[in-house]
Design brief:
With 325 residues, this protein is mainly α. 39% of the residues lie in helices and 6% in strands. The longest helix is centred in the N-terminal third of the chain and has 16 residues. About 6% of the residues have low confidence.
Length: 325
């Protein structure tokens, strides 16, 4: 699609036709809800969503954001960009991977509701190419891919920093890849999910919450809630032990933000069972028993069924291992 109209006068015929072509392109894209289109005007800069009438009005009053070059928020097809790719870059599935990164950014916007201006930096990283002319990866999508590799293989921060430096030397000049783990984590912090720090007894007797919220010592073993110095002096306000709690519901919401993951989460409902084959837990008698006992829960395919693992749990310190998750 010709994007030259973006820089033309908002009162011109060319700009008016360009706006209509843009909206038409959005409506043809299956990934875009007609009532929840990201507004690319200079005021909203894709941070807010609205219906077609609102988008059209904003584009005429505020103008189209000229920093929004690659229309990743509006599902710009990889087929349209193929002609702009160099001959040594073949079309791959990387567009879909980048669309997954876009979904993560959209989900991360919930963390910036009180400070939407800070989200502009996130958008820039999501749109900024890894280096000039790169069509496969943006700065953010490349970091997500590399950091997933770090986590999967248990790389240390020092090793990952060396990898970033060496990989950066192989890229063209003026690339946008960070050169240290610290900078990488700083960039990826926009995708992080909320967590809660809860004070705990040093002997894992209790958590200082609910009825124990205001306690200064453990009611079961008597140990102080606060950290002790070498001279056994309490550091009031400094907990002896802290448990990091990661609420599961925000993570489930993030999983459903991803188009690919959401398909996998509802696969059991949308596919036909094959008699005599156990392909998924939904084919088991236990799954069907849950469906029979709680039909309201079964009627919504997006409901998640969680299983609890007992590995490592030592609640009464009866096992030889002192560790307890």
């Amino acid at each position: 699609m010709d994007k030259s109209w973006i820089r033309s006068d908002r009162r011109s015929k060319q700009y008016e036709e360009g706006v209509e072509q843009f909206i038409s392109s959005c409506l043809q894209n299956i990934h875009v809800d007609p009532n929840l289109i990201h507004c690319p005007c200079c005021k909203c800069i894709n941070l807010k969503k609205g219906p077609v009438t609102s988008i059209r009005e904003h584009l005429f009053f505020h103008g189209f954001s000229q920093n929004y070059v690659n229309w990743i928020w509006h599902g710009e097809s990889a087929e349209n960009d193929r002609v702009n790719w160099s001959t040594n870059q073949d079309p791959t599935d990387d567009y879909h991977k980048d669309f997954e990164t876009t979904n993560m950014c959209e989900a991360a916007y919930e963390n910036y509701t009180e400070n939407p201006e800070a989200f502009v930096k996130v958008l820039e990283d999501a749109e900024k190419p890894l280096y000039n002319g790169c069509k496969r990866y943006t700065k953010l999508s490349a970091l997500v891919k590399l950091y997933n590799t770090k986590a999967r293989h248990g790389m240390s921060d020092a090793l990952f920093s060396d990898l970033l430096i060496d990989f950066g030397d192989m890229l063209p000049d003026n690339h946008n890849l960070p050169s240290s783990t610290y900078d990488a984590k700083k960039t990826l912090s926009c995708l992080s999910l909320s967590h809660e720090k809860i004070h705990a007894c040093s002997n894992d007797c209790i958590l200082y919450r609910k009825q124990y919220k205001d306690c200064v010592s453990c009611p079961k073993c008597g140990l102080s809630r606060w950290k002790l110095t070498k001279k056994n002096i309490e550091k009031k306000g400094v907990p002896a032990k802290v448990m990091w709690y990661f609420p599961p519901i925000p993570r489930f919401k993030r999983m459903y933000k991803s188009l690919e993951t959401s398909k996998n989460l509802t696969w059991h409902k949308e596919t036909t069972r094959v008699a005599g084959q156990l392909r998924h837990p939904s084919d088991s008698p236990s799954w069907r028993l849950v469906d029979h006992m709680w039909p309201d829960f079964e009627s919504e395919p997006r409901n998640l069924r969680l299983a609890l693992a007992a590995d490592g749990i030592n609640p009464h310190s009866k096992l030889s291992s002192r560790y307890s998750c």
